[in-house]
Amino acid sequence: MLHKKDLLGIRDLEVSEMMSIIELAKDMKPIVLGSGSRLDLLKNKSIITLFYENSTRTRLAFTMAGMYLGANVVDLGIATSSVQKGETLADTGITLDRMGIEYMIIRHSMSGAAHLLAKNVNASVINAGDGANEHPTQALLDLYTIYEKKGSFKGLHVTIVGDIAHSRVARSDIFGLVKLGAHVTLAGPGTLTAKSMEMLGCEVTTDMKAAVKNADVVMALRIQLERQKGGLFPNTREYSQLYGLNEETFAYASKDAILMHPAPVNRGVELMPELIDSCVSVIDEQVTNGVAVRMAILSLLSERRTRI
Fold first, then answer.
1. What is the CATH number of the domain that holds 67?
2. pLDDT confidence of 228, banded at 50, 70, 90?
């Protein structure tokens, strides 16, 4: 059960809401794998994706999730829309609302964009990433993947490595993992982390081996050059040598540790190919789980809208 008409951030969700999404995603996954029948929970409902930033996995995952649930899914081509004529986000949302759109999926470079849209429309708004703020659906699929592999969050040691400072995925994951009882360690160069992030309930270090030691889950993050102003590290080659995850470093983790990444992966930078393609990696499974989780979110928002 979800309590609000929108899903804007993990910070806003209660533990019970996160677990309801995870449990329902478990039921939805067979449909994604082709061993279950498609549903008509959203038959005759309309979904639109508004991606002001590039995306492959998130946008297509929502598209497939909507289709598996029987919805009509369309994409607003930002490059050919009235946005290029100067139309504001609020006005775009109001226009789509008047056309009968019931679910709006937005990715935007501005933090708070999803919240702004939600305030101006009757449709249910789902945040698919807003600036460096949050990426709640990525975090939920990460949480589902961890739960699927580990069975619980209590006392779990999760290490997140890489460009923490610019990662909306990291922020959402931290919010969710801490709420669910996991112990979170952040690791990366001092320029891409900050001790102040310990206020979120996690530990911060620049020592990679110490961070990975005895971890149950190790998650690497992409270096987000598009959000950086430069000068935060000499070059990607040096970053790879000091902070890239390889087999030697990963060996410090627990014997049954899993490797995660929100993707796309910069092979040879934050992760070495031998790890990406190894049996410890669940990166491809995260993609499948991403569709199932978004099906669960759409289904639960549909229930919420029916109750209004």
1. 3.40.50.1370
2. very low
Burial call 266-299: b when 16+ CB within 10 Å, e when fewer: beebbbbeebbeeeebbbebbbbbbbbbbbbbbb
**91-143 residue pLDDT tens:** 999 999 999 999 999 999 999 999 999 999 999 999 999 998 999 999 999 99
Return the residue matching tokens 């029987």. 70
Taking the model in full, what pTM does it have? 0.94
Counting the structural domains of the chain, the total is 2
Q: How far is CA 254 from CA 3, 147, 148, 211, in A?
A: 37, 17, 17, 12
Question: What is the Cα–Cα distance from 308 to 5, expressed in whole angstroms?
Answer: 9
Cα(205)–Cα(218) distance, integer angstroms: 14
> In this structure, are 208 and 259 located in the same domain?
yes
Distance CA 52, CA 54 (A): 7
Residues 164 and 277 grouped into a single domain: yes
User: Which tokens sit at 179?
Assistant: 């709420």
CA gap 116, 214 in Å, rounded: 42
